[in-house]
Hints:
Elements: H1 3-45, E1 47-61, E2 64-72, E3 81-90, E4 95-99, E5 101-105, E6 108-112, E7 121-122, E8 130-139, E9 144-151, E10 158-161, E11 167-176, E12 179-188, E13 199-203, H2 219-236, E14 241-243, H3 264-270, E15 275-282, E16 292-294, H4 302-315, E17 326-328, E18 331-332, H5 338-351, H6 366-369, E19 397-398, E20 400-408, H7 412-420, H8 422-439
Parallel strand pairs: 1-9, 1-19, 13-14, 13-15, 15-20, 16-18
Antiparallel strand pairs: 1-2, 2-6, 2-7, 3-4, 3-8, 5-6, 8-9, 8-12, 10-11, 11-12, 16-20, 17-18
Helix pairs in contact: 2-8, 4-8
Amino acid sequence: MSKNFKIKLIIIFFIILMAFLIINKFLTKHETLNNKELKTETIFENINKFNTAKINNFMIYGTHLNLDGSIELPKISDISIYSVHIVAKDLDGKEEPIDCTYTYKDNTLTFSTTDKINKGLSLESLDNTEYYLFLKVIFSNSEERYYSLENTSKYSNTTYYAISKKNKIDIKFDKFSDTNFFGLFISQIEELPNNVYDIAIDASHGGKDSGAKSKKYTEADLVLKYAKNIKQKLENKGYKVFLSRDGSESSEQDLSDVYAENGRINTIQESHSKILISLNINGAKSKTGGVEVYAPTKCDLKFAKSLADNIVQKTKTSYSSAKLFKQDDGVYVRNYTEYDILSFKASAILNKYEPYSITKQTSYQYMIREVGGIATNAFVDGRNTNYGKNKYFNSNIGIEAYILELGYMNVQKDLNNIVNNENLYTQAIVETIENYVTIN
């Protein structure tokens, strides 16, 4: 057998092998696609084809998806509604239920998953697959009915980037065989886009605004030092962290308009972070001092309580003794009061702009309210020309935000603790964040 003949045989064998591998890959892919289509068809088999639930609003707050809507359901004699859920079905038909509050009146069922804005469907808990969301109604005769979800809100398809798994979640509205669907399509990514972060840390004040002062220290300097420390610790654990300011601003720079184009509100929103901690040191007068964590309204307070507890335990500091707006030891929710609302209306009349729609369920602190979008009733839309505009006030994607008062500047034991135990404070903060985003 000549050498040339052997080479030809090797080439022919190689070509046959490559052709086999290509054909096998094509058939495998085709089989996978067919299998996926069959699974999708199975999911939609039991969906009511003649009635659709309308989504009025859907929103992502922090790491959770919530929605509300309605559906026309004619009353069935002697049969009542037993329970209502939104369910996320994966391709294997496994259901992830989300509890709903609901009312049924005049043949209209109105439902909502937003009893707590940081609950609902955890986007961090989803596996790397596809999910389809449906309204599930269970009746008193044990009958279960599934309804597809049609988007009638002013919001459209969007994308969420998970913290803990580095998953990209495409949130889409579309149709499958003429049936509307609300779907979550998940794929893994190597790294986050340049403009997307996991966690934001806000060092309050800065520039000309020093915040609270003592003889030797300023609030702006201390919280910036803390922010950089927290950022480093979180980055060491693999998180991508955004700082609202890094100290590069001059001491003469005016940062007071947080709603300016490059103000803290807009830049934090543009970071697409999921969690925000705003660091402060209380400038008010106190005899006892202590830690305070301020949380949004309509919020599950588990994170806020955990943050306060961890700081107190690790640093041997104390909970604040302040009673106003207190929900638990070290935990506070500050909403607008009737007096605040009347003052805002009076200011609007004086400055000749239409008053904001503020209620006693609106978060008072702008650093909580304005980064949360519709979930926290953000409202700074530019009508008051004394300030800039929050470009994201009407966004359905919000950052879950908390204000942390590390202690009181005028209480010496608080100040000494803040200055001398920075590592213990920051470790408590980092551990609380990590525990929350990985198990919540």
